[in-house]
Amino acid sequence: MDVSLILPCYNEAQIFRESVSRIVHTLEATKYSYEIIFVDDKSEDETAKLIRGTIKKNKHMRAVFHSRNMGRGSAVRDGLLEATGTVAGFIDIDCEVSPLYIPHMVDLIMKRKADVVIGRRFYRTNTQSIIREILSRGYRWLADRMVRTGGLDTETGYKFFNRKKILPVLKRTKHNGWFWDTEIMVRAKGAGFDIVEVPVLFLRRFDKTSTVRPFRDIADYLISLWRLRR
């Protein structure tokens, strides 16, 4: 197996079919063998039902179902632990960053022998994108000062790994929420891995409900940065 793609899911029924179709179309156009692993984090809508129906029809797909809501980080970690591909990675199923970047990122690991490849987000110019860019840069600056991230865009939900190399690091991660993205990158950087960033365009979707809780998540990030620094 060349590529394992993890798709963490929580209440994704609104955009599930369209997003999965785009992702499969991209993977089918490559020369790589692949598997898609859905991880449903105890969704409260029809997501789990849609996943079950989809995997029955496609031999390239399987799924993990959480018995309770564990958090985004836990969903990604559990999916990566189930992976069998030489390259294992994940993207956010809403496709706010297009799946079209997947082949290039996989190539960087398979051919260039990078250990980790992640997206670095860029935004179209409008009021909301400017605010997001300011917040993103602010977090990158703070994270670099506190836990030495090297200014990486750690929070991009678009990361691919040399699976065998990342496994020992993956098993050391502890955070189950959104901060997991920062934690895995800090640990990968600390392990001396070759990390490559790829510029990716972020296009905000307005046809879905966000699962981000701004005030609670910001507080969690600050506490988690402090704990990881210790």
List the helices and strands and how they pair.
Blueprint: E1 3-9, H1 16-28, E2 34-40, H2 47-57, E3 61-65, H3 72-82, E4 87-91, H4 102-110, E5 116-123, H5 127-147, E6 158-162, H6 163-170, H7 180-190, E7 195-202, H8 214-229
Give me the Rg, rounded. Answer: 17 Å
Fill in the CATH topology: Spore Coat Polysaccharide Biosynthesis Protein SpsA, Chain A
Number of helices: 8
Sketch the major β-sheet: 7 strands, mixed
What's the end-to-end separation, in Å? 38 Å
CATH superfamily: Spore Coat Polysaccharide Biosynthesis Protein SpsA, Chain A
How helical, in percent, are the residues? 40-55%
Integer average pLDDT: 90
General form: globular
| Physical arrangement of strands within the biggest beta sheet | 3-2-1-4-6-5-7
CATH architecture: Alpha-Beta Complex
Number of domains: 1
Order of SSEs, N→C? EHEHEHEHEHEHHEH
**Which class in CATH terms?**
Alpha Beta
Structural class from helices and strands?
A: alpha/beta
Number of strands: 7
Strand content: 15-25%
Which residues sit in consecutive blocks of at least 5 with pLDDT less than 50? none
Short summary:
The chain has 230 residues and is of the alpha/beta class. It is built from 8 helices and 7 strands, in the order E-H-E-H-E-H-E-H-E-H-E-H-H-E-H. The chain has one domain (3-229): Spore Coat Polysaccharide Biosynthesis Protein SpsA, Chain A (Alpha-Beta Complex).
